[in-house]
Amino acid sequence: MVFSSYVFLLVFLPLFLITYALTPARARSWTILLGSLLFYAWALPSALGLLVTVIVFTYLTGGRVLASAGRARLTWLTLGVTGNLALLGYFKYANMAVSSANSVRNVLGFDEFTWTQIVLPVGLSFYIFHAISYLVDLHRGTAKAPRNIIDFAAFVSLFPHLVAGPILRFHLLADQFRERTHTPEKFARGAQRFMVGLSMKVLLADPLAPLVNAAYTAAHPSAADAWLGSVAYTLQLFFDFAGYSHMAIGLALMLGFRFPENFLDPYTATSITAFWQRWHVSLGTFLREYVYIPLGGNRRGLGRTNLNLFLTMTVGGLWHGANWTFVLWGMWNGAFLVLERVLKKKFGRPPPPAWYAVPKVMLIVILGRVLFRSENVAHAGEVYRAMAGLNGAALTPDVAITVTPERLAVMLAGVAVVYGAPLWNRRAEQRPALRSAPQYALIPVFLLAVATLAAQQYAPFLYFQF
User: Mind telling me which residue stretches traverse the membrane in this protein (predicted)?
Assistant: First the structure.
C-alpha cells in the first residue's frame, strides 16, 4: 500500500484514524501494530513473516543486552547486529554477489552458478536499520527499554516510516511511546504536512517519470537526452522522496509523534558537505552515529578521518542498492567530501558566493545521479559519453515525444519551488503574515493532486526499491 493511492487515502487512513482515536491510550500501541502490519501485508503478505522475525529476534536479543554486562553484553549486541545484517545481506545483496561471481567465472571460462533471483521485501533496509539502532541505543544506555514487545513492535512497524523512512533512532521515539500529546493543532499541522507531501509527489515528481525513463532507456542517448533526463531525474527524486518524508512526518504528527526533519533545502547547499547535512538527514545521521563514529570518526588524525568519511559514504552508497553503480555513487560523494575537507584544512579560504557555489554543487549532484539512476556501470558510461557530446546533441525521437509543454512547465515549477520556497520561508520569519498565504492555496492544490491520481498509472515511491 502506498500513501498516494485511493485505497490508502479513502479507506485505510480514515478507518485507522477513527480506530486510533477510539482506542484507550494504554492500548494504542496495539492499534498501531495491527494497523501497520495490515498496511505492510496489503501488497505482499508473504513478506510479513520476515518483519515479524526481525521484531522478535531483535527484542529478545535486546533483552539479553540489557541483562548482561561486560564482554557478554558486547557479545549479545554483536549477535543482534550481525543477525540483522545477515538478513539484509541475503535478501538485498545475494543476487549481486552471485552475478558478480558469475561474471568472474565467465572470464575464467567456468560455468555459471545456477541461482533463483531473490525478491527484496519492501522496506527491509529501513526496518533493519531501526532494529540495529534499538540494539545499539540499549547498549550505549541512550534509551530506556520499551515497556513490552508490543511497544517495540509498534516502533519498528509504525507505518508512516516503515517502508521508506525516515530512518529513526530508537531513543528518539522511546519516550514518545510512553507518553505523547494529541491535540487538534498537532493533528491539523500533520494533515497540512501530509497534503504538501502528496502534492509534491503527484504534481511535481510523477509527471517527470516518462521523460526520465525515456532518457535512461534510449539505446544511444544524445547530449540533450542525457542532460535533460538527468536534470529531470534530479527534480523527480527530490520531490518524490521529500514528498514521502513530508507525508510520513505529517502522519506521525496526526498520531502524536514527532519525527525529525529529513530534508532541509538540500539543493540550495553551497558545498557537498552542506548538501549531505541537508539531504536524507536521517540516513546521514544514522551513518554518522553507527558507522562513522564506530570507525573512529575524527579522533585519529586527518588521514584516518578522511578514510572513515570515504568508507562511510561508500557504505551509504551500497545501502541504497545491490549494484556496483551505487557503490561508485557512494565513492563519488565520499571523494568530494574528503576533497572539501582537505582543501579547507590546507587553504582555509572563505566559502565562495552562492551564485557560484550552488550551481557547482548541483553539477556534482547531477553527475552523481547518473550512477544512481543507471542500470549498470556500462549504462552509466554510455550516459556520461552522451553528456560529453559524443553521441550528438539533438533530442532523439523517443525522448522528444516525452518533452511536452506540460512537462517542461512542471520542471520550471519544480525549480521555482526548490529555490523559491526557502526564500519565502526566510521572509515569512520576518513577516509572520506571509505564513498564512500558502495555506489558502494548499487545499485546492491537494484536491487537484487527489483528482490527478485517477488519471495516473501506479507510481510507487522511488525509495521503495532501496
Answer: 37-62, 74-93, 113-136, 148-168, 237-257, 309-332, 352-372, 408-425, 437-459
Catalytic-labelled residue, pool 130, 139, 280, 320: 320
pLDDT at residue 441, rounded to an integer = 79
- Can you tell me which residue has the cell 557530446? 389
pLDDT at position 384: 96
Residues 6+ apart with CB under 8 A from 347: none
Give the separation between CA 232 and CA 208, rounded to whole angstroms. 6
Output the pLDDT for position 232: 97
Say if residue 322 is exposed, middle or buried (CB neighbours under 10 Å; 0-12, 13-18, 19+): buried
- Exposed/middle/buried for residue 270 (C-beta within 10 Å: 0-12, 13-18, 19+): middle
pLDDT at res. 179: 85
The per-residue pLDDT of the chain, averaged, comes to 89
CA pair distance 279, 262, nearest whole angstrom? 7
Name the stretches of the chain with pLDDT < 50: none
CA angle in degrees (0–180, nearest 5) for 196-275-319: 85
Question: In the block, which residue shows the cell 550481525?
Answer: 82
Does 246 qualify as catalytic in the annotation? no
Set of cell numbers at residue 25: 491510550
State the Cα–Cα distance between residues 124 and 49, nearest whole angstrom.
Answer: 12
Residue 241 has a CB neighbour count (10 Å cut-off) of 23
Amino acid occupying residue 30: W
